[in-house]
Write a structure and sequence with these properties.
This protein is α+β, with helices and mostly antiparallel strands. Helices cover 49% and strands 18% of the residues. The strands form four sheets. A seven-stranded antiparallel sheet has the order 7-6-12-11-10-8-9. Strands 14-13-18-17-16-15 form a six-stranded antiparallel sheet, with helices on both faces. A hairpin with a 4-residue loop joins strand 1 and strand 2. Helix 1 runs antiparallel to helix 8 (210-224) and helix 10 runs antiparallel to helix 11 (275-327). The longest helix is centred in the middle third of the chain and has 53 residues, at 275-327.
């Protein structure tokens, strides 16, 4: 108990150290942010104006690190009795810690990426603007490369500390923390020794601020002290010699070289001596200091070893005496406390009360709980007497224990109280019912033997009757070679022999049955491969293996076998037992069912329409007929679950929209819908098919499970015909309207413009020109147009014959059609190219051998 209290006190102290470190990080980071907000240089860079300032992002990272470190201890220090009351608080604290760690790693990782990739993500001055001439800051507002790297390592260490996967996780967390400490100590030494490269790393990167380095070391101390019972810190804080030496030498190993080096550098910079003298003084001083520390530690360890050895000898002598007394099991002995807890007990005591050592170690055994209520006052009197007694002993008294099975046992109890508070006890328990119990046990044993004989006789009769009537063949071999196999009537009937015969094929020559042979997969088995012989020889079970018994009359019996070996007291096989189930009828039924299934599939393959079987619920296709395979252009995709339909089936509706998984026909019918003429478009490598879907679910019947049936009707050609008829009707209507306009219109220019509008709607025209030939001249004037502005029209309002494409069509009196205008190098197409035209058609209108006008439609 004292050790437990000490460990609890140590954990509390470590938690305080960790929380203080987290609080310092939050307070300093908050002060720096306040300095940036109010432009207080002292808060940003410290007492010296020429020092590097802590950047705003670095201050935010320190606040996040402090929060996560504080919350890690808050969540881990909840007591069991308040666990339910603080469950919600723990959940909130855990989430806040997780978010803080994620933010810390994100900010530092983005800063590292900016340095490594030469980026500027705009996060450096997101909160506050930095001075353009900030000291040792090549990138305004950006924390140093070593600072960002430290934050990445620190965030990783906090994440591992808060969410450890195993004990090895604490090693990773502490090693990562030590790396951060080394980098920060390097920067701190750089400031102390005035060596800029130690805290700036590279001229093109921002330097680590002095208070940044100090704050890193504070956080490292907090993380290392969070779990001193794990990882590297377990050795440092342990009460062993290694922990003692580590604590004595680590502080000196860090402080002495740092302080000594600073003093020597100050003297050298003052000009008191040169570099060689400084190094020699440094080396000699270190040798003397550490030699003295090593000698001092050796003296302490030697003294401790001597005291420990002497104590160990005394303890071993007492332990041997006590152990021999306890292990003798002459009397029940237990180590407990006055509150009922039992810490250790010998086998004699556990045997008295009927509990196991596992139950004792699990805390399920308490001496006050197994004491009847009427005897508890005797225990209280004994405790009072022993506490008042200078020797701590009480007068032995008689009481009873309630054993685990509910029975009572009379005992004689005597104990002494130990410890500073006299709360620990060593009790001696004497069983007072040994003789009576022995006599009672003897009588019970005799009665039990008689009852067992009667039960055994009854069981033998029942087992024999069971073997005679059970419809499963049973064979029992009682020798390792399986030379003799006894069988029940069912197995004898399966083999075609009488029940009293020896069924072993490895029996002596005069006993081997000759009326049957054993086959597997059409091959006769050798003696070593026979199931019972194989199981006995190899000591293994044979489960769900099929055999064929071929009788001498040609009849074949199919058997499903289960064989298990029998072992003796030494673990050697002494025989085996086998169970053989006749599955001949089942095999015939399965073969008949397979033939029926094959016949049904052949019938469905003859159907001209595609047909599918779909499994209800999962929407997996279990069968597709030949027409469905032909429609899919190969094997129809089968076995695809509803969640993966979109990866195989590309369905669209009548508007061309992609059909989601939950609305696909197969999924709909699988969840119980009935489909009657649902129209979809199926996009395959062969092309696009327009389909009508008809589907419904067949209920379970005739020993077949429920099945969804889906039938496709391919209406692709019908849709194409409908589309062609629609286009033809539209064009015929255009022809009728144009003819009517030609007969009724007296204005050719308006007629041509109307004709273009109708053609543009039908065949997708964008631009048109309509030029008229001036009277008795070689010049054409732009009469009407569409698809461009009036300013552009003025540029080519007049064209001469042979000019551009329109003039050429008029001059040659032939229509001109060109494609790929933008790739053309002909100067006559320059006008068309300038308008972005890709293809055009120019047609001269000729009446009675005279040019009326020229139309250019694009």
């Amino acid at each position: 108990m004292s050790n437990s209290n000490r460990l609890q006190m140590q954990d509390n102290q470590n938690s305080i150290v960790t929380k203080i470190a987290g609080a310092i990080a939050m307070i300093v980071g908050g002060c720096v942010l306040l300095g940036w907000l109010l432009d207080i240089e002292f808060l940003k860079r410290g007492s010296y104006a020429n020092l590097v300032s802590m950047k705003a992002n670095a201050a935010v990272c320190f606040v996040l690190a402090g929060i996560s470190l504080w919350l890690s201890q808050t969540c881990s220090n909840n007591q069991p009795d308040t666990e339910l009351a603080t469950a919600e608080d723990n959940l909130i604290a855990s989430r806040v810690a997780r978010v803080s760690i994620a933010g810390l790693i994100l900010i530092s990782s983005l800063t590292l990426m900016q340095y490594l990739c030469g980026w500027n993500l705009g996060i450096d001055e997101l909160l506050f603007r930095d001075a353009p001439n900030a000291v040792l800051t090549p990138y305004t507002g950006r924390m140093g490369l070593n600072t960002a790297f430290n934050f990445v390592l620190l965030g990783s260490a906090l994440a591992i500390l808060n969410y450890p996967q195993s004990d090895r996780s604490y090693w990773y967390s502490q090693i990562t923390t030590l790396i951060v400490a080394v980098i920060s100590l390097q920067a701190l030494i750089g400031y102390a020794y005035n060596v800029q490269i130690l805290y700036s790393i590279w001229p093109t990167t921002t330097s680590m601020a002095l208070h940044t380095a100090i704050l890193f070391i504070v956080l490292c101390v907090g993380i290392l002290w969070a779990r001193t019972d794990k990882g590297l810190m377990q050795v440092v804080t342990s009460e062993t010699y290694g922990g003692l030496l580590a604590r004595r030498l680590l502080i000196a190993a860090i402080a002495v070289p740092l302080l000594l080096g600073w003093l020597i550098i100050q003297g050298q910079q003052a000009g008191n001596y040169d570099t060689a003298f400084a190094i020699s003084i440094f080396a000699i001083t270190l040798i003397v200091v550490f030699a003295f520390l090593v000698w001092r530690c050796a003296v302490i360890v030697e003294r401790l070893c001597y005291n420990n050895e002497r104590t160990q000898k005394t303890l071993r002598a007492y332990e041997e005496k006590l152990k021999s007394f306890v292990d003798s099991n002459v009397i029940g002995i237990l180590f407990a406390d006055i509150y009922g807890n039992i810490y250790q007990a010998n086998d004699e005591y556990l045997e008295m009360v009927g509990y196991t050592r596992e139950e004792l170690l699990a805390g399920k055994l308490k001496w006050n709980q197994i004491t009847p209520p009427e005897y508890l006052h005797l225990d209280e009197q004994g405790i009072v007497e022993a506490t008042a007694n200078p020797k701590g002993a009480c007068t032995p008294y008689r009481k009873e224990y309630v054993r685990k099975d509910g029975s009572r046992i009379p005992v004689l109890v005597g104990f002494v109280v130990l410890g500073e508070k006299r709360q620990e006890t060593v009790a001696f328990i004497l069983n007072l019912s040994d003789r009576e119990q022995a006599q009672l046990e003897q009588q019970k044993a005799q009665e039990k033997i008689l009852q067992l004989n009667r039960d055994l006789q009854r069981r033998v009769v029942e087992l024999q009757t069971l073997l005679d009537v059970i419809p499963i063949g049973i064979g029992i071999a009682e020798d390792p070679e399986c030379r003799t196999i006894k069988i029940n009537p069912c197995f004898a009937n399966q083999l075609g022999i009488s029940p009293g015969m020896n069924a072993s094929l490895s029996a002596p020559a005069d006993e081997i049955p000759t009326t049957f042979k054993i086959y597997r997969d059409g091959r006769e088995l050798s003696l070593e491969e026979l199931p019972m012989q194989y199981a006995t020889a190899h000591g293994v079970e044979i489960i769900d293996s099929e055999l064929d018994i071929v009788r001498d009359n040609g009849q074949v019996i199919n058997l499903l076998q289960y064989v298990a070996p029998l072992f003796d007291e030494e673990g050697k096989t002494r025989g085996c037992i086998g169970a053989f189930l006749d599955i001949t009828s089942r095999k015939q039924a399965e073969e008949l069912q397979q033939n029926q299934q094959k016949w049904l599939e052949d019938v469905l393959n003859l159907m001209p329409r595609p047909l599918l079987f779909i499994e209800p619920g999962t929407a997996r296709v279990t069968f597709a007929n030949r027409a469905a395979n032909e429609l899919a252009g190969g094997e129809f995709p089968q076995g695809i679950s509803a969640e993966a339909y979109h990866t195989v089936y590309n369905y669209t509706d009548a508007t061309g929209q992609q059909i989601p998984n939950e609305q696909m026909p197969g999924v709909r019918v699988a969840r119980g819908e009935r489909l009657n003429g649902v129209e979809i478009d199926w996009h395959t490598s062969q092309g696009i098919y327009s389909l009508l879907i008809f589907a419904d679910t067949l209920p379970a019947m005739h020993e077949y499970p429920a099945t969804c049936v889906m039938v496709f009707q391919d209406v692709t050609k019908l849709k194409q015909v409908e589309t062609a008829l629609s286009i033809g009707n539209n064009r015929l209507q255009l022809l009728f309207n144009t003819a009517s306009a030609l007969l009724s219109s007296q204005q050719p220019v308006a007629l041509v413009e109307t004709l273009f509008c109708k053609l543009a709607e039908q065949i997708g025209l964008d631009i048109y020109f309509n030029y008229l030939v001036e009277d008795n001249s070689q010049v054409m004037r732009l009469a009407s147009y569409s698809g461009f502005s009036a300013d552009i029209a003025k540029e080519f309002e007049l064209l001469n014959f042979g000019q551009a494409v329109c003039g050429t069509a008029v001059q040659s009196r032939q229509p001109i059609y060109l494609e790929n205008v933008q790739q053309s190098t002909d100067p006559k197409t320059a006008l068309i190219r300038s308008l972005g035209v890709n293809a055009y058609y120019s047609y001269p209108l000729i009446a009675q051998g005279q040019i009326l006008e020229d139309v250019w439609k694009v």
